[in-house]
Amino acid sequence: MSTEHTLVLVKPDGVARGLTGQILARIEAKGYELVDLKKFTPGRELLEAHYAEHEGKPFYEPLVAFMMSGDVVAAKVSGHRVIEGFRSLAGTTDPTTAAPGTIRGDLGRDWDLKVQQNLVHGSDSSESAERELALWFG
Ligand code: DAT
Ligand code: MG
Q1: How many A from CA of 124 to the centre of ligand 2?
Q2: Which residues bind ATP (predicted)?
Q3: What's the pLDDT tens digit per position in 73-116?
């Protein structure tokens, strides 16, 4: 078995709504390991580096502002194929139409025209995971 690592963020909407425990429980119930956890309000510099691929898109500024609006819980999660597996648990980006059974589909919906408040972030590839884990966990 080859173990990989991914970055999961419970975004400010998830923390503010008291869903952190439920979200982390789904990750553990799937059989993944929570290797490291921290809770804090991220600053602009970290978020701009994290979301560099989206710079210039219409939702970029609202996204950074939303992510700075309160505490997030960052998790380093490990397991076989966890990058793909967590993306599948999270569901598609738009929480209004994400499939039932997923975190976004069961617990989320859209509240804002400018940015989708979709409860969680998960790295989308091994390159992203490595880059993002270095940013959030050093
Ligand atoms: P994901 O979080 O599913 O990997 P992404 O990387 O394409 O999605 O976008 C990052 C975040 O930006 C996403 O979680 C919510 C927000 N976002 C993406 N596309 C959007 C859109 N068309 N309108 C509003 N917000 C959007
Ligand atoms: Mg993404």
Answers
A1: 6
A2: 11, 59, 87, 93, 104, 118
A3: 999 999 999 999 999 999 999 999 999 999 999 999 999 999 99
Domains of the chain, CATH where assigned:
4-128 (3.30.70.141)
Instruction: Pick the residue whose CA is nearest to atom 8 on ligand 1.
Output: 93
Residue 134's identity, in one-letter code, is A
Beta strands in the chain (DSSP E): 4-10, 33-40, 72-79, 120-122
Task: Round to whole Å and give the CA distance between 25 and 10.
Answer: 12
ipTM of the predicted assembly exceeds 0.95: yes
Tokens of 23: 């979200």
Collapse the DSSP code of 5 into the 3-class scheme (helix H, G, I; strand E, B; otherwise coil) and give the result.
strand
Which pTM does this prediction carry? 0.98
121 is catalytic: yes
Of 51, 53, 55, 63, best ligand 1 pocket probe by most atoms within 8 Å of the beta carbon = 63
Most ligand 1 atoms within 8 A of CB, residue of 86, 93, 96 to mutate: 93
